[in-house]
Amino acid sequence: QLQFVESGGGLVQPGGSLRLSCAASGFTLDDYAVGWFRQAPGKEREGLLCISQIRGRTYSADSVKGRFTISRDNAKNTVSLQMNSLKPDDTAVYYCNLHYRNGLDYWGQGTQVTVSS
């Protein structure tokens, strides 16, 4: 079973920033495409950004383009989500998803992000 965990969530004021991390242990995270998703209360899970394995190509949903960025640090075996200009609508549980080339998906436990004054 893959071991990875999201961290970095918390309470932030509107306009603020947070950096979430998805940290893996016991395997090479760069072997997986990694995506960040979020789910707000009463809403469906929404895909935000993803980064491909090896070449690190990134893709962003229009809803976060220009505010959120995704990046890999292979030395630390992590994928990070930098979130800037946060809005109350960004309040949600944020999940890291790992996708392997054989079609298997793995989900983290999630980390809560609350944007409120």
3D structure, described in words:
Strands 2, 4, 5, 6, 9, 10 and 11 form a seven-stranded mixed sheet that branches. Strands 1-3-8-7 form a four-stranded antiparallel sheet, with no helix packed on it. With 117 residues, the chain is mainly beta. It has strands spanning 3-7, 10-12, 18-25, 33-39, 46-51, 58-60, 68-73, 78-83, 92-99, 105-107, 111-115. It is built from no helices and eleven strands. It is globular.
Structure at a glance:
The protein has 117 residues and is mostly beta strands. It is built from no helices and eleven strands.
Q: Could you give a short account of the major beta sheet?
A: 7 strands, mixed
Output the radius of gyration: 13 Å
- What is the average per-residue confidence, as pLDDT, rounded to a whole number? 95
Separation of the first and last Cα atoms = 39 Å
- Tell me the series of helices and strands, N- to C-terminal: EEEEEEEEEEE
Structural class based on helices, strands and sheet pairing: mainly beta
Characterize the quaternary organization of these chains: single chain
Report the count of strand segments.
11
Relative helix content? under 10%
Specify the number of helices: 0
Low-confidence stretches: none
- Report strand %: over 45%
Shape: globular
